[in-house]
Amino acid sequence: TMLVLCTALAGLLLLLPLLGTCLWPYWWQDLVTSTLVIYQGLRGLWRLQRRPPLTLLDSFLEKARSHPEKALLLFGEQVYTYRDIDRRSSQVARALRDLGLREGEAVAVFLPNVPAYLWVWLGLAKIGCAMACLNSHLRAASLLHSLRSCGATVLLTSLDLQAAIENVLPTLRQEGFRVFYLSKESPTEGVEPLQSRIDAASTAPVPVAFRGNVTGKSTALYIYTSGTTGLPKAAIITHTRLCMMASILNVCGVKPTDVIYTPLPLYHSAALLLGLGGSLEVGATCVLRSKFSVSQFWDDCRRYNVTVIQYVGEVMRYLCNAPKRENEREHRVRLVLGNGLRVEVWKEFLRRFGPIRICEFYGATEGNIGFVNYTGKIGAVGRTNFFFKMLAPFELVRYDVEQDEPVRDERGLCIRVPPGEPGLLVGKITKASPFHGYAGDRQKTEKKVLRDVLKKGDVYFNSGDLLMVDREGFLYFQDRVGDTFRWKGENVATTEVETTLAAVEFIQEVNVYGVPVPGHEGKVGMAAVRLKEGVDFDGEKLYAHAKGSSPAYIHLTWKDELEITGTFKQCKGQLVKEGFNPALIKDPLFFLDESKKRFVPMCPEIYSSILDKKLKL
């Protein structure tokens, strides 16, 4: 009897993993990933609670000591080792100290994708200064606003952006900004060249005392986000958050032997914090491009022996729309990670370029909640489980898109949505999952806070995104709420575009919104305008104005009157439903034609070319 019992017990133990896999097919992946997330979180907290704390900079310095000759950054023909970057960043740190910069101050960095971005960042970190990462496409009022909001008085830029700087320089000088080119000479009066000072500085290690008061709660970076309305907002990134975001590559399985390809702009958190920051944390090599190129993409991957690719959804779509090549499966890429990947593009990418692991993730730069799809489930932005909800509590609550607010019950509390129904994602604000908000305007921070969600007095971060969870725990992105829409990996704030277009002399009133385009990521911009009485529309003039100072959009219609609500808010719902189909819209309709550099009348032929993807948007 005992033998039979032991045999049965042994058989049951052998069957348990198989039974578990049948009932809970992702339990092993959930366990492994949750353990890794907990380990990375505890390790990060332990390092940052030490005195002095061990920040991402210290992770980099550890790597520079252990393998100084290893390549950290590849850019064109240039190769920079860990030692090279360490020495150059020390020179930057000393040069900036000589200018009078001290721990706790912010420095604005207005640069394209160049290697100097990395050693300027680390140089600032070595003296305890926060770097404000200005979007290199900002101009005029948007640029000035971003500079003012971060509290910086020093601006570092390059000759590539000379025209943009000279346009705002009188205002900058009037407001006390010191502006420097990272070059040996300056063609602009009032802008100092800094490179000779940097080259003359010592490459020796910078004293830790220069950053002696830095803690995990100190601001490391300001990353700008358009948010839901208005001008760019400076999201506060603390050293704790920086370490957590840089560790995502660890969670996705990136190793020190990997070569990571980053064709995304460094002023975005994806490229800077995950791409470069993740490389520093893991000890890997990063390939940086000045900008994304479809034609050079796979050639670059072969040339640099790339094993990991960073993407936003549009990058993957461009690759899948490119003409097929015989050698497009000849590469060493094993992993791609990013966000915004549509299901059809996901499937096409795997079919064309091989069985590559795709790690789609979800998160906002300033948010306190994020997900990673570590299972490879097509279409999902992440997965939740018991462990995750303990670490970072979140909810999906019912949302009224027309009223642009959460639905509340008779007690004034939000209502959870069941699986399969889209809901507003909100993340509980706790000590472990804080929301630091934006620099310079507490009102904008408060707008992202939702109170009395599940009980009176609780506080949540409002993501502004609608997500859906299925019965297996997979999360799917549905849409953005409010006025913001997403196009080509960028959030476009309609209020900002409306303000820009309203300055055109023949426009009386304007309403900007996003409309979906079949086969394209996000929504393309469209503007409904009311012309001033007795003034003609000028397609060339509007093109010149729009291309110089606002995010891209392609369709425009004008109307005799724009509908508003009783509280004078512009109505977008009906306009969005109309889309840009000339067969449905009876008002004059125009298309932004890049080849002719003007807005031209939309016709059925242009509309068909867009739907057939023959016309590039």
TrEMBL record:
Stretches assigned to the AMP-dependent synthetase/ligase domain: 62-382
Classification of source organism: Eukaryota, Metazoa, Chordata, Craniata, Vertebrata
GO MF: cholate-CoA ligase activity; long-chain fatty acid transmembrane transporter activity; long-chain fatty acid-CoA ligase activity; nucleotide binding; very long-chain fatty acid-CoA ligase activity
PANTHER family linked: LONG-CHAIN FATTY ACID TRANSPORT PROTEIN (PTHR43107), LONG-CHAIN FATTY ACID TRANSPORT PROTEIN 2 (PTHR43107:SF4)
CC per GO annotation: endoplasmic reticulum membrane; plasma membrane
Protein family: Belongs to the ATP-dependent AMP-binding enzyme family.
Protein keywords: Fatty acid metabolism, Ligase, Lipid metabolism, Membrane, Nucleotide-binding, Transmembrane, Transmembrane helix, Transport
Enzyme class: ligase
GO biological process: bile acid biosynthetic process; long-chain fatty acid import into cell; very long-chain fatty acid metabolic process
InterPro entries named among the record's database cross-references: AMP-bd_C, AMP-bd_C_sf, AMP-binding_CS, AMP-dep_synth/lig_dom, ANL_N_sf
EC nos: 6.2.1.3
Gene this protein is translated from: SLC27A5
Domain AMP-binding enzyme C-terminal: start-end pairs: 496-554
Protein's recorded name: long-chain-fatty-acid--CoA ligase
Catalytic activity: a very long-chain fatty acid + ATP + CoA = a very long-chain fatty acyl-CoA + AMP + diphosphate; tetracosanoate + ATP + CoA = tetracosanoyl-CoA + AMP + diphosphate
Keyword Transmembrane: yes
Keyword Cytoplasm attributed: no
